[in-house]
Design goal:
- The protein is an alpha+beta fold.
- It has eleven helices and 23 strands.
- It has a five-stranded mixed beta barrel. Strands 20-19-21-22-23 form a five-stranded mixed sheet, sandwiched between helices. Strands 4-6-5 form a three-stranded antiparallel sheet.
- The structure holds adenosine-5'-triphosphate and magnesium ion.
- Magnesium ion binds at residues 209, 257, 260.
């Protein structure tokens, strides 16, 4: 993409009421815009990142047999009332339609997915099944002060699984844990994210959270460094030792919950009368699991943990562009001509490039913006580099600058060297 054509620009005046680090960085760099507390627009650069996170999630969900669907956000009161959540779900946005009917905006979708899947599953032969969606969720969060980490409107991937028995649920649950770690690794958070025991299971004693270590995180966890397993502070009273090695060798850390998975058992299948015919012709309740993960929260978390004083440092797989190509303005027409050629070459090689082709901006300003935006590779073309038939290559997370022959650049960038 040509930066001269990008309608957003980096911003110096930030909203005064925005205190979170991730939102301030993302607003400054033109990735998102703030409309109200916990409500943001995604601009071209931000949407590229969000879409890449969603693409990774889709690939990993499809790989474990999840089938993608899209459920409505407008959910009638009756659906929530069936599970007693119309009265009890504090964060539900409630509204009244023109027909005087009441609705709750989708904060989670067990009340929709359970009766939906029930329409198609009758016998043990139809089980197991797993469906997921990536959708905008609404929650009337009291404290929406953490930028993308706690939105009132935010994106969630929610997967729901349906099983004939507990054993089958347990097997799938372990598969989901592995799949989640693949997602977090691909998004650059693998080393910082820990499986964490938490309250909230309706069927099992615990639910499991995926907590990413971050100084600004709202959660406190107790981490067993040896087992790489953590316990949420909310349950530490119940779980005083590491669930794996049984030692009480915990380190206290701040973290962000990027995912949360639950064994639901029959909590939702019972109220909706969702049963199946077993092999002997008997009627059994369907056993369910649900698995949440927030792409927008994940994006905010990456900003909290992957940055330096100059700006963001995007992990390669979710960067808006792989390369930020900078043309240092020059009176010699050759510089623009060679930079354009390189831009086209790289794109022909399948490399995503943001090309700073703007004539009115100084090299220093371009460098500062490139650091702020945080693409993994910065390439600079100037009179000086062209005198050596070269381009200056710098990785965003490294200090060293290297001169690479123009003819070699595409290979270097695609080979990940
Ligand atoms: P929290 O404890 O942080 O309030 P939760 O336990 O209510 O979150 P779940 O209902 O399990 O969250 O939602 C699944 C996932 O959706 C979370 O792990 C998180 O990644 C994301 N998520 C939840 N609430 C928000 C929010 N307000 N803003 C952004 N993402 C969210
Ligand atoms: Mg939670």
């Amino acid at each position: 993409m040509l930066q001269s054509k990008l309608f957003t620009k980096t911003i110096k005046e930030l909203p005064k009421d925005e205190t979170s680090f991730n939102a301030r960085q993302l607003i400054r760099a033109g990735f998102i815009d703030k409309l109200a507390a916990g409500v943001y627009s995604f601009l071209p650069l931000g949407l590229l990142v969000h879409d890449k996170i969603c693409r990774i999630i889709r690939e990993e969900m499809d790989a474990i047999g999840g089938q993608e669907i899209l459920m409505p956000a407008l959910i009638p009161k009756e659906s929530w009332a069936a599970t007693n959540r119309w009265e009890n779900f504090d964060a539900l946005f409630r509204l009244i339609g023109g027909d005087k009917k009441e609705y709750g905006l989708g904060a989670t979708h067990e009340e929709v997915v359970t009766p939906l899947v029930k329409k198609f599953i009758f016998s043990y032969k139809d089980l197991p099944a797993a469906v997921y969606q990536i959708q905008t969720k609404f929650r009337n969060e009291l404290r929406a002060k953490a930028g993308l980490i706690r939105g009132r409107e935010f994106s969630m991937k929610d997967l729901y699984s349906f099983h004939a028995d507990e054993k089958d649920l347990n097997k799938f649950y372990e598969i989901v844990i592995k799949s989640y770690f693949k997602i977090f690794s691909r998004c650059g958070l693998g080393d910082l994210t820990y499986l964490t025991y938490a309250l909230g299971g309706t069927f099992s004693k615990y639910s499991h959270e995926f907590q990413t270590l971050a100084k600004t995180g709202e959660d406190t966890i107790y981490l067993c460094k040896k087992c790489k397993i953590a316990v949420n502070k909310e349950i530490i009273e119940e779980q005083k030792v590491c669930p794996q090695c049984k030692k009480k060798d915990f380190v206290e850390e701040k973290a962000v919950e990027v995912g949360n998975i639950f064994k639901l058992g029959t909590r939702f299948s019972k109220p909706f009368g969702f049963s199946y015919m077993d092999e002997k012709g008997g009627k059994q309740d369907v056993i369910m699991g649900c698995y949440g993960l927030g792409p927008s929260r994940l994006m905010g978390t990456v900003v909290e943990v992957c940055h330096d004083e100059q700006g963001m440092i995007w992990p390669e797989e979710i960067a808006p562009f792989r390369v930020h190509l900078i043309e240092v303005r020059s009176k010699e027409a050759k510089v623009k001509k060679e930079t354009e050629k390189l831009y086209n070459d790289l794109r022909k090689n399948g490399v995503e490039v943001l090309y700073d082709d703007r004539d009115e901006i100084s090299a220093g300003e371009k460098f500062a913006e490139a650091d702020l935006i945080g693409c993994p590779y910065r390439l600079v073309v100037s009179e000086k580099t062209l005198a050596k038939d070269s381009v200056e290559v710098k990785k965003r997370d490294k200090k060293e600058v290297e001169m690479v022959k123009i003819s070699e650049v595409a290979k270097r960038i695609t080979n990940n060297a």
